[in-house]
Design goal:
single chain; about 400 residues; alpha/beta; 2 domains; 6-stranded mixed sheet; ABC-3C_CTD7
């Protein structure tokens, strides 16, 4: 149980770090600041702005808010050890600004209290308390940090601590939802805000993973976040709907679809296995995306039904024309060939969009598979009769 708790606490700490980085990035965007942000490089989060000193953020999230930043707090000294070491070995620029952002509280008259921004800030008193702690404390966890601090000259201690700002009582991870919404409230209508925040945060986490996984570890640029915010904002306009990358990029296991009616429809007209897989993939994407739109209440009442009706009407025109061209005495091979041509129109044709801005073709193509699964559309001129005969034994077994 202890290990599980430790793993959970670490995971929450990483998530907190990433979410706080997004919040701070959005706040900087609102101020029209151009920046790059790095995760887990010089510290938890590092902001670099053109021509400005680097802002280095260390985040500390505690589930138990009763934890405090006393003068021997490992949160303080572990953070100081990282920062002082970076300054000594020149991996951190001398003109950097350091932020310790923590959900803990700084007790009045403590060193952390004197390093907060505002009226209580008193770097001289902070130095006095930190000097006393570094000289007298027996906390073995902090031993290396104490030594580093003691070895700094008075001038370097002063310069270092002048650049340190403690932000205590920071919002907990669960409180960040509301703060992210506050930063993004302007982007979309209030009813879409939850969906919008969910998507931009999803993009952010994927981008952070890419950033952390890359050997080059290129920072995330403010232009990227701004572009993604703009792209998503467009998708929440009245003539559009969001199309989600996680659905479009999901791996589809076709084995679970082999007995579906829309697959039987394709086998009836002898469509190749590879194209059947594409049909299954389109079915999956359209089904999942439509379901998410419904769950998130992004559609108008009856909009999906109306959309399906329009697609059926388009199909009816071609289906009836196909039957007229075949006549009553067409051979089976001719029927299959005509049906294959009709199905090719589904695969490659230009189809009606559910809304003008939804240009992703798999939505319409997949919806046709959904309609084929319901037997509202079909490809073989006798699909209803043939499939009824084919599916009846299976229905009887259920």
């Amino acid at each position: 149980m202890k290990n599980n708790f430790g793993a959970s606490a670490s995971l929450i700490g990483y998530l907190y770090q990433c979410r706080l980085a997004l919040l701070e990035a959005l706040r900087r965007l609102r101020k029209n600041v151009t920046f790059s942000v790095s995760i887990e490089t010089l510290d938890d989060v590092v902001f670099d702005s053109n021509g400005e000193a680097a802002e280095i953020l260390q985040t500390k999230h505690h589930i138990n808010r009763a934890a405090d930043l006393n003068d021997a707090s490992p949160d303080i000294w572990k953070t100081f050890r990282i920062w002082i070491s970076g300054l000594i070995n020149d991996t951190i620029p001398d003109d950097s600004t350091f932020f310790l952002i923590t959900t803990s509280s700084a007790p009045e008259a403590s060193a952390a209290y004197y390093l907060r921004a505002g009226k209580s800030r008193d770097v001289v008193r902070a130095i006095e308390r930190l000097n006393a702690t570094a000289e007298s404390s027996t906390n073995k966890t902090n031993t290396h940090a104490y030594k580093l601090f003691r070895n700094l000259s008075a001038e370097k201690k002063r310069n270092f601590l002048e650049a340190v700002i403690v932000l205590d009582n920071a919002p907990a991870i669960s409180d960040l939802d509301g703060l992210l919404k506050e930063e993004l409230f302007h982007a979309v209508k209030p009813k879409f805000l939850d969906s919008f925040v969910r998507r931009i945060e999803g993009w952010w986490f994927r981008r952070v993973i890419e950033h952390l996984s890359s050997d080059a570890s290129e920072p995330i640029l403010s232009e990227e976040l701004l572009a993604e915010e703009g792209r998503l904002r467009e998708q929440f306009k009245q003539d559009n709907l969001p199309v989600d990358d996680d659905i479009m990029n999901a791996t589809v296991d076709a084995s679970g679809y082999q007995d579906r009616t829309f697959v039987h429809q394709l086998r009836l007209i002898e469509i190749g296995n590879r194209r059947i897989f594409y049909a299954i993939r389109n079915y999956f994407r359209a089904f999942e995306q439509r379901s998410r739109w419904v769950r998130e209440d992004l559609l108008f009442v009856g909009e999906l039904d109306r959309y399906e009706d329009r697609l059926v009407e388009e199909w009816e025109l071609l289906f009836e024309a196909m039957k007229d061209d075949l006549g009553n005495d067409a051979a089976e091979e001719a029927k299959k060939k005509a049906a294959q041509a009709l199905y090719k129109w589904v695969e490659t044709g230009s189809h009606r969009s559910i809304r003008a801005g939804v240009t992703e073709p798999c939505i319409a193509r997949g919806t046709y598979q959904i309609l084929a699964d319901k037997l509202r559309v079909g490809w073989h001129p006798e699909f209803l009769k043939r499939l009824k005969k084919l599916l009846e034994p299976q229905e009887a077994e259920k």
